[in-house]
Amino acid sequence: MPGVHHLSVDDVLDRQVDHIVSLGLAGVILFGIPAEKDPVGRENFAEDGIVQQALRRLRQRHPDLLLITDVCCCEYTDHGHCGIVRDGSVDNDATLEVLGRVAVSHARAGADIVAPSGMMDGMVGAIRAALDECGFAERAILSYAVKYASAFYGPFREAAQSAPSFGDRRQYQMDPANVREGILEAGIDETEGADMIMVKPALAYLDVIRAVRERTELPLFAYNVSGEYSMVKAAAKLGWLDERRTVLEMLTGMRRAGADVILSYHATDAATWLKEGPA
Q: What pLDDT, on a 0 to 100 scale, did the predictor assign at position 163?
């Protein structure tokens, strides 16, 4: 994606995060690309995993920066699915133990918030139990409770090399036509102990953000995903849209729909424009 890059755990990461902090952004979310992939995704919960290394480095350099980590299997597994695959389909219950191990390893390395994104049934409860058992009761869970099987994830999957090698993710992600299930899933995750709720994607799901907002008092996140970002970048490059005005209008719409926090690839640009004042 234009302006978005893989970062190694060295001074490149330091410079990027130093810039983020200088803009007044309060936190970052980390996604890892392992050196090797396997059926379980063992680097996902390894002490020297790429995310664990980044967490320790960032925690030392920026002790007050909010560090969030994606907790899923898709970037780490050789099949690209969000859980453990058995007999050609994702084994939900077998995946829960892995997600608990991942969350604990991230908390131990310095994560403030773990964000399970795989849409496994019971994932929040399993992660909460694992964190509490290992002495991390104060670490928060941001649940991707309302995550749709969307075409807008394409650029991220290409960048993370995480597209499924067979089938698709409709076994566990939600039907884009179904808002009622999203409300139900958010309520279940809240009951299991989620501290925050995510709706993903954002732009085509503003009605879902509003519906979830009206039914929970938890902090609500909206994920302005890779396809949404890339469409604006492509149109701006062709001169079809004013990038600054379009981005700020989109983000305002997400906020107006009820999102307390927006995860966005536009974040550094938006923060720069807001600091500069009106165009």
A: 58
Nearest alpha-carbon partner for 146 in 89, 90, 215, 226? 215
DSSP character string of the chain: -TT-----TTHHHHHHHHHHHHTT--EEEE----SS-BSS-GGGG-TT-HHHHHHHHHHHH-TTSEEEEEE-STTTBSS--SSEEETTEEEHHHHHHHHHHHHHHHHHHT-SEEEE-S--TTHHHHHHHHHHHTT-TT-EEEEEEEEB--GGGHHHHHHHT-S-SSS-STTTSBPTT-HHHHHHHHHHHHHHT-SEEEEES-GGGHHHHHHHHTT--S-EEEEE-HHHHHHHHHHHHTTSS-HHHHHHHHHHHHHHHT-SEEEETTHHHHHHHHHH---
Q: Which residue numbers are catalytic?
A: 147, 200
pTM attached to this predicted model: 0.92
Show the domains of the chain with their CATH numbers. 11-276 (3.20.20.70)
Pairing of strands 89-91, 113-116: unpaired
Q: Does residue 86 contact residue 40 with C-beta atoms inside 8 Å?
A: no
Q: In 10 A of CB 255, how many CB atoms? A: 14
pLDDT at 122: 95
What's the pLDDT tens digit per position in 40-72? 788 888 899 999 999 999 999 999 999 999 998
Lowest-pLDDT range, 70-74, 80-84, 237-241, 252-256?
Answer: 80-84
Instruction: Tell me the pLDDT tens digit for each residue of 203-219.
Output: 999 999 999 999 999 99
Q: Using CB atoms within 10 Å of the CB of residue 141, give its burial: 0 to 12 exposed, 13 to 18 middle, 19+ buried.
A: buried
